[in-house]
Write a structure and sequence with these properties.
This is protein-disulfide reductase. Its EC number is 1.8.1.8. It comes from Rhododendron griersonianum. It catalyses: [protein]-dithiol + NAD(+) = [protein]-disulfide + NADH + H(+); [protein]-dithiol + NADP(+) = [protein]-disulfide + NADPH + H(+). By secondary structure, this protein is an alpha+beta fold. The protein has helices spanning 2-32, 42-48, 68-75, 84-100, 103-107, 144-166, 184-191, 204-212, 235-242, 251-265; strands at 114-116, 123-125, 133-139, 173-179, 197-198, 220-224, 230-232, 271-273, 280-284, 293-294, 301-302, 306-309, 314-316. The strands form four sheets. The protein has a five-stranded mixed β-sheet, with helices on both faces. The longest helix has 31 residues, at 2-32. It is globular. The two termini are 17 Å apart. Mean pLDDT is 80; it is low at 1-9, 32-65 and 328-332.
């Protein structure tokens, strides 16, 4: 319970930090652009910082505000004057950056062309990752779901590396930590639990990557292909679903795994008695009442097939079901 309270407080602080950053960007807009100071009134500030607020009606100069926090957080002062035309222009520029992205331009700046390895002071050139499938892992030591997923990811990371080595394949897999830790000491102890690489603590590129990939929560795993292009932002979900078999996380690989899962589901019982729940749970797919969910047993994401209790809103991965014989089950 203490850890859960700590995590909620930390999430609230993160939200406050984000709103503070957005308001700072708004001040920059007002300070550097020719616009009215009325934007800084409490009413407008509350509107712009509302995560769901929209302003559907255009102003006389064509300005349209929608999802103020996201727009200003993502684009900063460059979003001015917030017209539909300007937002579309920014999206086109963003698309061009995605299409031309490489590992080097994502992970380096004029002052640094390396990542941290182990021991922590070891410097690993970013260009040494060229030709590898790379996961950008956004997490922090204070994030309880991140701590839990990191343990799984460490195991999956080693299994993927071992499989590639055993099969003598030319491709390779690496992970880069993009940390949200609050201090150098916390970062050091966190990174020392991992086997992969990391951006240095408090490197400005970490914040740039968070915005660039539109990371809404941690832990999150973005997968890049050997050319540095984005394969998927759903790396965490794919690992939860398919373990090491998710590699190399491509669309073709996921389609194959989905077909295999559909075949396996044909042999699953339509109804189970799960030790973690007091009612029977029914096998469902996305086409028969299921959909994306958070597993009530392992607390990780799921999609596709699940065992579900509609009455309680309870869903679990098929692999998480602990079947019991018919009889009384202790309330969950």
């Amino acid at each position: 319970m203490r850890q859960e309270v700590k995590e909620v407080l930390q999430e609230n602080k993160n939200k406050e930090d984000r709103e503070s950053e957005v308001f700072g960007e708004l001040v920059e807009v007002v300070s550097t652009k020719s616009t009215s100071l009325s934007l800084l009134t409490s009413k407008d500030r509350d509107f712009l910082l509302s995560p769901t607020g929209t302003q559907p009606n255009k102003t006389k100069d064509g300005a349209v505000f929608r999802d103020g926090v996201d727009v200003i957080y993502r684009y900063g002062a460059s979003a001015f004057p917030f017209t539909e035309e300007r937002l579309q222009e920014l999206k086109r520029e963003e698309k061009e950056r995605y299409e031309s992205q490489t590992l080097v331009n994502l992970l380096t700046n004029r002052d640094r062309d390396f990542l941290l390895g182990h021991p922590t002071l070891k410097q690993v050139p970013v260009n040494s990752l060229t030709g590898k499938t790379v996961g950008l892992y956004f997490t922090a030591q204070w994030c309880l779901p991140g701590v839990k997923f990191t343990l799984k990811l460490i195991s999956i990371y080693h299994k993927i590396k071992e499989t590639l080595l055993a099969e003598s394949k030319d491709d390779d897999f690496e992970i880069v930590l993009v940390s949200s830790d609050r201090g150098q000491t916390e970062f050091d102890s966190h990174f020392n639990t991992m086997s992969w690489l990391a951006l240095p603590f408090d490197d400005p590129i970490a914040k740039t990557l968070t915005k660039y990939f539109d990371i809404q929560g941690i832990p999150s795993l973005v997968i890049l292909d050997p050319d540095g292009k984005t394969v998927t932002k759903q790396g965490r979900n794919l690992i939860n679903l398919y373990q090491e078999n998710a590699y190399p996380f491509t669309e073709a690989r996921v389609e194959l795994l989905e077909k295999l899962m559909d075949e396996e589901a044909k042999n699953l019982p339509p109804v189970e008695r799960h030790a973690g729940h007091r009612h029977d749970v029914k096998l469902v797919s996305e086409g028969s009442g299921g959909g994306p969910f958070i597993c009530c047993d392992c607390d990780e994401q799921g999609s596709g097939w699940a065992y579900q209790c509609i009455e309680c809103g309870y869903e679990v991965h098929p692999k998480c079901v602990r079947a019991v014989e018919n009889g009384p089950i202790t309330d969950a």
